[in-house]
Design brief:
Methane Monooxygenase Hydroxylase, Chain G, domain 1; mainly alpha
Length: 178
Amino acid sequence: MASPPLLTQPTTKRTPPPVASSLPSKPSVPLATMTSARHIARREFAISMAAGVLSTSALLMLPAAVPLAALASSDEEYVRETTEVINKVRSTINMDRADPNVAAAVADLREASNTWVAKYRREKALLGRVSFRDMYSALNAVSGHYISFGPTAPIPAKRKARILEEMDTAEKALLRGR
């Protein structure tokens, strides 16, 4: 314990700061109490205003942040759209590189795959599915190839075999409801 001379006794009487001429000479409430009450009231006001602004802005921004078209509405829709993308991937990577429509098919595939990924990547219920995992991996491989090498570059046999295998696995998992 500290020695008694080092401890100071609390003062019971506070001396108010110098009063400006525009303020009343004797406030009815002690100045220290007024300042702390103002500070608390200001803080509560700021908190309530911030909460109101945040909740209002969150409500206004919700439709813009999450478009309704981007949300997955049902399991049947997921199965249907995933099957469509699987068919597009198969038809695109099996096209002859001399085919004049290959660039348009690749552009269509990239658009479809970007839409599929943007729509279903946020769905927590789908992230653990085998079909989603394999489909996402295959789309990543296909998109990465065409971005790196261009739309007319043929996919190497080893990569093509892996992509087709992932498509088969994803399709089987879709049929099983996985």
